[in-house]
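Cross-check.
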Amino acid sequence: MCFTISMNVTAIKIAARFGVPVNGILHDGPGEVSGFSHPSLPVLNSGGLEMMHWGLIPHWVKSHDQAEQLRKKTLNARAETIYELPSFRDARPVIVPVNSFYEWHHNDDGTKTRFELLPANSDLFMLGGLWSEWIGPQSGKRFHSFTIITVPANPLMAEIHNSKQRMPLIIAESQLDSWLTSRDKDVIHRLMAPCSEFLMSAQKR
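Predicted model, tokenized:
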């Protein structure tokens, strides 16, 4: 799974790098952060760059209590079931740029070793996800949130994340437009594949 990331590049630099418009007020990446704190991160969707909260709240949620409970369970979405589960069925593609992410290796003696996964030939991973807009039932405030999609692990990640053997979906920069704009399920399914292990490096942390 993917619950901890590191984001150190400023949001303005991300917008400039991809030549996209900025929607709303941007904040810089928070450094290393856990999804369970539901941080606000700069993400790319088909409209440009904006801040969204990690932990997807579907549009059909009826109360704040339900929203708080559900977003704890939607930090990640399995690629195999995004078109089946109500939480993700109507969500739209998003890209979450991160400098790295973290996973745990379970050792034979019962201990765990934490690894940081970094891009081998770039400064950013482009994690594929889904986002949704929820309107607060009392306030009427629009709230944008996202989930990170996970796929079966490539050989490197299967060795490191040996308990679950999953990894976040990583989209090549050359495929960003296809991911963000396509409505063709066949195209999206082809993109939801593990990236090559040779595009990643790992360090014990």
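The mean pLDDT is 94. The CA atoms of residues 131 and 146 lie 4 Å apart. Passed to J.P. for a second look.
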